[in-house]
Amino acid sequence: MSASLASVLAGLGPVAVAVSGGVDSLTLATIAHRTAPEPPLMVHAVSPAVPGEATERVRAEAAREGWDLRVIEAGEFADPAYRDNPVNRCFFCKTNLYGAIRRVTGRPIVSGANLDDLGEYRPGLDAAREHGVRHPFVEASFSKAMVRALARDLGLGAVAELPAAPCLSSRVETGIRIEPETLAFIHAVERLVGENLEVTGAKRAVRCRVRAAGIVVELDSQSLASLPEAARITLGRRIAARAPARLSDAPVSFAPYRTGSAFLTGGAPR
């Protein structure tokens, strides 16, 4: 661990770590637990937007490391502003999350955000700022690659290779209402497609986008190139068969992966 990260963590005192189940928050939780004089509180929120695998991963790591873990419901699905899916939907998601964590503990809240996140459109960081959330990796100048390297140094080999996995709501095009059944469909599609790909680990990207124009499965370039046309047709039919009623007539297509392509600002993808 770098001296700068050690200094940041030491200066925070007892903290509550918001643990989503991704590489950043799991790595932060692990290093904080192993080095802090007083064990941190880990808080994980469950909702239709959080894949079950993420929750299982958090529970497994908590059992392995001996964390003090609280699993809560953030309550974002009771917030009409979140369900309406504006371009800053993430602001309302994180507002509900941090509010729920604050009701559990008065400790400073820390997140796994890193320097790479600052270069993207992240309205959730505005919510974090309003709630006084600290970002130790940002303060210690850690990039995503550095977080992955730290995870390996900590013996978290499988965690270090996890692909990026934003919440399931990020797959729904701006302005399309967020529905639990839509997110369950998205998750099922991504698992189905992933089972048919040879690419694994951090390099793999599978996103099922729900757009006004239809269902688009975005893949990293290697996966897309390795998926023959016949396989795409077969997968497309299987995907269509799983679609909820509101998407029953939506066409299914495959395309190259683009970060944040479900967000629309002024009618253009962001």
Automatic annotation (TrEMBL):
The keyword Ubl conjugation does not apply. SUPFAM superfamilies: Adenine nucleotide alpha hydrolases-like. Keywords: Hydrolase. It comes from the Bacteria. InterPro entries: Ni-pincer_cofactor_biosynth, Rossmann-like_a/b/a_fold. One of its GO terms (molecular function) is hydrolase activity. PANTHER family: EXSB FAMILY PROTEIN, NAD_GMP SYNTHASE DOMAIN-CONTAINING PROTEIN. This is Adenine nucleotide alpha hydrolase. It comes from Methylobacterium currus.
